[in-house]
Write a structure and sequence with these properties.
Layout: H1 3-71, E1 78-79, H2 81-87, H3 89-98, H4 110-121, E2 131-132, H5 138-149, H6 152-172, H7 178-269
Antiparallel strand pairs: 1-2
Helix pairs in contact: 1-5, 1-7, 2-3, 2-4, 6-7
Length: about 280
Amino acid sequence: MGLFGSIIGAATSIIGGNAQKKAANKAAQAQVQAADKAIGEQRRQFDITQDNFAPYLGAGTSALGQIGNLLGISTPGTTDWEAYVRANPDALANWNAIRGTKSDTFGGDIGAFGKYHYDKDGARRDISAYTSGGSGGVEAQQGAIDALMQSPLYSSLIRNGENALLQNASATGALRGGDMKGALANFRADTLAQVIQQQLANLGGIANMGQGAAGSLGTFGANAATNIGNSMTQQGQALAGAALAKGGITAGQWKAAGDGLESVLSSIFGGGGIKL
C-alpha cells in the first residue's frame, strides 16, 4: 500500500469508528428512553390503581375502628417521655444526676429514662397530659352503642316490636300485668344485642373488603416494583453495552492509526519500517 493509501486507510478507519460510536450512543439512548417510558407507565398505572382502591381502603380502616369501639378495644396513645421527665422535678433531678455518668444505661436518651422512671414510680402519676393519639375504650364503646340506639333501624325495631307486644297483651288481657313490663324491658335489651351483632357483621364485611383491597394493591405494587427494576436493569445494560462498544471501537481506531503511521514511516524511511 502506498503512502497516500495508508493515510487514507487510517483516516477512513477513524471516521468509520466515530460513526460507529455515535450509532452506539443513539442505540443506547433509544433503549434508555424506552425503559424510561416503561417506568413512567408503570408508575402512572400504579397511581391510578392506588386511587381506585383508596375508597375501599378508607372504608375498611373506618370499619375496623368502629368494630374496636363497639367491642370496647382501646388503642394506646403515644407518650412524650421527655416531656414527662421535664414536667416532674424528681424525675428531672434523677436524670441530671446520672446523665453522662456510668449510671446512664439509657445511652443519653432522656425519653428512654422517662419510660423507665414511670414504670418504676408511675402508678401515682397522670401522664394524660403527655399522651396523644389514643382511642377506644369504655367511653368510645358507650358512644358507639348510644349511636346505634339513636339510629332509625333500632328505633323502628323497637317501635314495631313494642306495638306488637302491646297489641298481643291487650288481646289477652295481660296489658297491666308485671310480666308485660318485664317483657318490654327484655325486648329492648334483646333488640339492642341483635342490632349490635348485626352491625359488627356489617362492619366486618367492610373491613374484609378493605383488607382484600390492601392485599390486591400490595400485589400490584410489588409487580410494578419488579417491572420498574427490570426496566432500570435494561437501562444499565444499554449504557454499559454502549460504553463497551465505544471502548472497542476506540481501541480499533488507535490500532488503525498506528498501522497507518507505521506504513507512512516505512514508506519514508524504507526497509522494514520502524516498529512502534
